[in-house]
């Protein structure tokens, strides 16, 4: 795994882990949402976080970004405790609902976030170009379609050249063409050395990821590559694979299981 | 916290409002209309001369409180607050940015309300009109600051609307508009004397009837200023980056 990582630090054992979660317990509104989750994510990967609604995907992402109150366990991001001050410019987070100002234009939204991040104005142009928002950049975000608004929200996450992008359901409500374009963008970003966590409840998006985290009821059903998940469940369809794993669900499946 | 991020936030809030002309209109005109209404009600009496100054304290205070408390709550509900807190924005940048933006609007609003009360409604001012203006601005800023504080505690629109009767109405009732505070029961007088709006009402009344000198009035403004700073500091301390 000796790839050049323009955005990252020189790799070495451990330094390559972008996220290390150990025994994470989280409650929301008195209900336990995550019970003892552990996982590791390597640099430059696209990690698909999949599972039905209510399985704890958003809570896990919020814990990684450091905006979630956690009960116990540790979350380390880029070698620092999640939510550390320094990480606020190295980690970008896109919430599930497009978090942009409806009463500002696309460009005004991005210009503000750029000033908060302290990056140059040219970054705004780049982000608009990368998300194909050039035609609507002078329109109010509130007047855009759902898909366009979520792209504005995504564009804001591209401004700071973050090393880790945490994207909560970024492709929901997008038409197939745009979805393909976005996945191309994600692969480009990973090629530039960024690590991406992309959640989705659409199973067929899984095939575009390097690593899969399959979640159900706050537990990890699988932490493995697409190939291993499919091989271990003896199918070529993600949906079926997921259902098979639920039936088996005792211990989380890993890559080693298939290589044995 | 950095001046650049605070100013960026204030600028952003102002450009949001600029896209909403109706809010600007309401913000600038409503207090004056209400003052005009009170003056009209008491046309055939000399009551307005007595309560007019208190009205300058009351209406801008209420309007600024409402608008500010809802604006920051909207930010929490839309997810933009969560986004900002995952970015290098200080809690102070956020609160102070709002305070600056709405403070600027409060200055315009007060200028209009004071001019209207004096030159259209015929409110007689014995003291300095500039002093009247200064007190009125500090009073509108007080509304802004308390609104920010209230919205830091509110989670929903329903809650923030409830804060209005809780935080604002007692100040109106005990401020000496209905009955001079020295005629209130002892306990209520003590509470009324401590509430921040009372200082604004006292100071504006004193400027209007010329009963106190400038030093006394600036003393009251200083207390209002302390309330403003206190509310803003408390408001930013109570904001949480991590939420349950």
Can you describe this structure?
The complex is a heterodimer of chains A (260) and B (244). In chain A, 32% of the residues lie in helices and 25% in strands. Chain A has eight helices and eleven strands. In chain A, helix 2 (106-117) packs across helix 3. The radius of gyration of chain A is 18 Å and the shape is globular. With 244 residues, chain B is mostly helical. Chain B has helices at 3-18, 21-41, 47-77, 80-85, 91-120, 129-153, 157-173, 186-194, 196-209, 214-238. In chain B, helix 5 (91-120) packs antiparallel against helix 10 (214-238) and helix 6 runs parallel beside helix 10 (214-238). The longest helix of chain B has 31 residues, at 47-77. The radius of gyration of chain B is 18 Å and the shape is globular. The A-B interface holds A 27-29, 65-69, 83, 85, 88-89, 91-95, 97-104, 108, 112-113, 115-118, 140, 156, 160 and B 4-5, 8-9, 11-12, 15-16, 19-20, 78-80, 82-89, 241-244.
């Amino acid at each position: 795994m000796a790839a050049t990582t323009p955005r990252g630090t020189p790799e070495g054992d451990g330094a390559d882990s972008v996220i290390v979660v150990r025994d994470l317990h989280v409650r929301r509104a008195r209900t336990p949402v995550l019970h003892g989750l552990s996982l590791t994510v390597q640099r430059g990967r696209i990690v698909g976080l999949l599972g039905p609604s209510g399985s704890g995907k958003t809570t896990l992402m919020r814990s990684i970004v450091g905006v979630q109150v956690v009960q116990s366990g540790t979350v380390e991001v880029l070698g620092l405790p999640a939510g550390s001050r320094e990480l606020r410019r190295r980690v970008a987070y896109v919430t599930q609902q497009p978090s942009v100002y409806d009463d500002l234009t696309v460009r005004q939204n991005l210009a503000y976030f750029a000033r908060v991040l302290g990056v140059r104005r040219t970054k705004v142009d780049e982000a608009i170009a990368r998300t194909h928002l050039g035609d609507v950049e002078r329109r109010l975000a509130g007047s855009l379609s759902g898909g366009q608004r979520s792209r504005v929200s995504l564009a804001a996450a591209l401004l700071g050249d973050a090393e880790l992008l945490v994207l909560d359901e970024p492709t929901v409500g997008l038409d197939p063409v745009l979805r393909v374009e976005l996945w191309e963008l994600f692969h480009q970003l990973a090629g530039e050395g960024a690590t991406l966590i992309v959640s989705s409840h659409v199973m067929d998006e899984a095939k575009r990821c390097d690593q899969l985290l399959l979640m159900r009821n706050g537990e990890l059903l699988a932490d493995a590559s697409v190939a291993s998940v499919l091989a271990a469940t003896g199918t070529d369809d993600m949906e079926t694979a997921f259902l098979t794993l639920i039936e088996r669900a005792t211990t989380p499946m890993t890559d080693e299981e298939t290589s044995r | 916290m950095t001046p650049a991020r605070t100013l960026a936030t204030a600028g952003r809030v102002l450009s949001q409002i600029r896209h909403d002309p109706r809010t600007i209109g309401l913000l600038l005109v409503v207090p004056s209309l209400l003052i005009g209404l009170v003056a009209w009600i008491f046309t055939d009496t000399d009551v307005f001369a007595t309560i007019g100054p208190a009205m300058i304290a009351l209406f801008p205070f209420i309007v600024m409180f409402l608008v500010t408390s809802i604006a920051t709550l909207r930010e929490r509900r839309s997810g933009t607050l969560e986004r900002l807190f995952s970015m290098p924005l200080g809690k102070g940048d956020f609160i102070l940015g709002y305070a600056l933006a709405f403070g600027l609007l409060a200055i315009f609003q007060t200028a209009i309300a004071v001019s209207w009360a004096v030159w259209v409604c015929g409110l007689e001012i014995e003291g300095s009109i500039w002093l009247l203006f200064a007190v009125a601005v500090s009073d509108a800023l007080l509304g802004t600051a308390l609104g920010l504080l209230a919205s830091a505690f509110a989670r929903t629109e329903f809650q923030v609307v409830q804060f209005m009767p809780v935080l604002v109405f007692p100040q109106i009732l005990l401020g000496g508009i209905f009955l001079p505070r020295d005629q209130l029961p002892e306990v209520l007088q003590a509470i009324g004397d401590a509430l921040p709006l009372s200082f604004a009402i006292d100071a504006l009344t004193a400027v209007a009837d010329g009963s106190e000198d400038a030093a006394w009035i600036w003393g009251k403004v200083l207390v209002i200023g302390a309330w403003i700073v206190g509310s803003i500091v408390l408001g930013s301390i109570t904001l949480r980056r991590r939420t349950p």
